[in-house]
Amino acid sequence: MIGHYPAAFEREQGCTEAEWLAWLPGAVRDAALRVGPAPGRASVVLASGGALHLRWQPLPPRRIALIVLPRLAVSFRFDDGVDAAVRQRFMRYFDLYLQRGGG
User: Would the pLDDT of 1 be above 50?
Assistant: First the structure.
């Protein structure tokens, strides 16, 4: 999904919930992050106005032979009025921060 970030989309992240929560503060850079109030939810207040709302839930792990990979289903929803350029800028950094491994 490089280059285009709609106002709402879903993804599968290859991590545990504990890893996700540890990575979120860095992934949102200097934006205000509020985790909760319900489990599996967070909001990010964007400097340009508006917010990103995150919801996640653990999925069964992916098994490939003897390898077991954790998974989370994550929903991203930007407020109405957050324009495409703001979404692009925010998500490019977010995605680069969460990128793991080589390439």
Answer: no
Per-residue CA distances from 55 to 3, 63, 67 (Å): 22, 24, 27
The overall longest dimension of the chain from CA atoms, in Å, is: 46
Question: Could you tell me which of 22, 24, 16 has the C-alpha nearest to residue 68?
Answer: 16
d(CA 70, CA 59) in angstroms, rounded, equals: 8
Q: Please give the Cα distance from 68 to 74 (Å, whole number).
A: 19
Say which residues have a Cβ less than 8 Å from residue 94's Cβ, sequence separation at least 6.
27, 28
Q: CB–CB of 97/23 below 8 Å?
A: yes
Global model pTM greater than 0.85: yes
Q: Distance (Å, rounded) from C-alpha 72 to C-alpha 56?
A: 6
